[in-house]
Amino acid sequence: MTAAENSTSPRTVLSAELLERIHGRAEGYDRDNAFFTEDFDELVAAGYLRALVPTRFGGLGLSLQDVAREQIRLGAAAPATALAVNMHLVWTGVAKALHERGDSGLDFLLEEAGRGEVFGFGISEAGNDLMLFGSRSVAAPQPDGGYRFTGTKVFTSLSPAYTRLGTMGLDTESADAPKIVYGFVDRDDPGLSRKDDWNTLGMRASQSQTTVLDAAYARPDRVVRRLDPGPNADPLIFAIFANFEILLAAVYTGVGKRALELAVASAHRRTSMKNDGRSLAQDPDIRWRIADAAIAQDAIYPQLDAIAAAVDGQADLGAQWFPQLVGIKVRATETAREVVDQAIRVSGGGSYFAGNELGRLYRDVLAGIFHPSDAESAHNTVATAWLGPLEK
């Protein structure tokens, strides 16, 4: 996407009316442990799944910074809907980032997303703390140059809706093995199935079900990388990290935003008998809690904006890129947890009842600690960047 193309792109896609309808359905999806079907249909109709696709491929041509801002708004309205849509947005963002840097290897993804295909993110594996740098799944090379993937992928958001699945596995058979292989599998492949096993504490509408791959086939033109295991400077790895961490941080920033709004409304609504019936907005302790939450929340917006703009502008941060990316994810998710906690303390026992929005946010925000990079991995990344690797 050219600078001129980006400069004329719309800055927002989600209308206030659409967000209100999405917000109104969130409680029901959570209660019923149901996929956000109506939300999804409306987001598709609005063109939101094409937001990061350049206009030349049939998309809306928004920047990563634009979409991060939109994901904050969507995350505030319905966290689980935002989290699930995130996975498709990540893949389109990855393809966009590579395209802008002169790599056409994922242009097919931009073309297909522009035509309405939906991409799932089938990367996470139980017990794989190496994340992108290792895999428990098998990638078996085929005579035609394609690969067959076998393994189990967890937290596959958008499970009921994706039409293409981006995944990875380990090739131990080729002459240059081992290699981590990245490829895309069609939804109707007989080797791809999903378990109806998403019954979780929070983020229920995302329906991030377990995916089972049993020799699922990625044809040669859908095999996009063969990389050495371990840390890798390949642009694909950078693009995945950048889009995943930034857009994930945006969703949880939206959760914090909504929690703060609810805390303010509660403080004005609730009254105190010990303070002559005045609202809790006049209580010094409550005012301190809300101020504390607002100070933490306000710090995330400019950080998120800045790092998204750096990706859009192809800034050269060198060895600091990965520390910056994992840092924004950890800060955003931990800040959201802190803000939600403060909001619940302000709002009182009503938030402990089933169906209360703050109670749902309390459950939803907990998911942030499980997404990569987790706190341990992030601290290791940052320590290595500043202190060098551990001595062996």
What does this structure look like?
InterPro entries: Acyl-CoA_Oxase/DH_mid-dom_sf, AcylCo_DH-like_C, AcylCo_DH/oxidase_C, AcylCoA_DH/ox_N_sf, AcylCoA_DH/oxidase_NM_dom_sf. Pfam families: Acyl-CoA_dh_1. Its cofactor is FAD. Belongs to the acyl-CoA dehydrogenase family. Residues 246-367 form the Acyl-CoA dehydrogenase/oxidase C-terminal domain. The chain has 392 residues and is of the alpha+beta class. Helix content is 48%, strand content 14%. It has eleven helices and ten strands. It has helices spanning 3-7, 16-32, 37-45, 64-77, 79-100, 107-114, 235-269, 284-312, 321-347, 357-365, 375-387, and strands at 119-122, 138-141, 147-156, 164-171, 179-186, 192-194, 209-218, 223-227, 271-272, 278-279. A four-stranded mixed β-sheet has the order 1-4-5-8, with helices on one face. It has a four-stranded antiparallel β-sheet with strand order 2-3-7-6, with no helix packed on it. Strands 9-10 form a two-stranded antiparallel ribbon. Helix 4 packs parallel to helix 7, helix 7 runs parallel beside helix 9 and helix 8 (284-312) packs antiparallel against helix 9. It is globular, with a radius of gyration of 21 Å. The relative contact order is 0.12. Residues 1-10 have low confidence and may be disordered.
Mass-distribution shape: globular
How large is the share of residues in beta strands? 5-15%
Number of strands: 10
What is the strand arrangement across the widest sheet?
A: 1-4-5-8
Weakly predicted, low-confidence segments: 1-10
What is the first-to-last residue Cα distance?
44 Å
Helix/sheet category = alpha+beta
Q: How many helix segments?
A: 11
Mean pLDDT: 94
The proportion of residues forming helix, as a percent range, comes to 40-55%
Largest sheet properties? 4 strands, mixed
Radius of gyration based on Cα positions: 21 Å
Spell the H/E element sequence: HHHHHHEEEEEEEEHEEHHHH
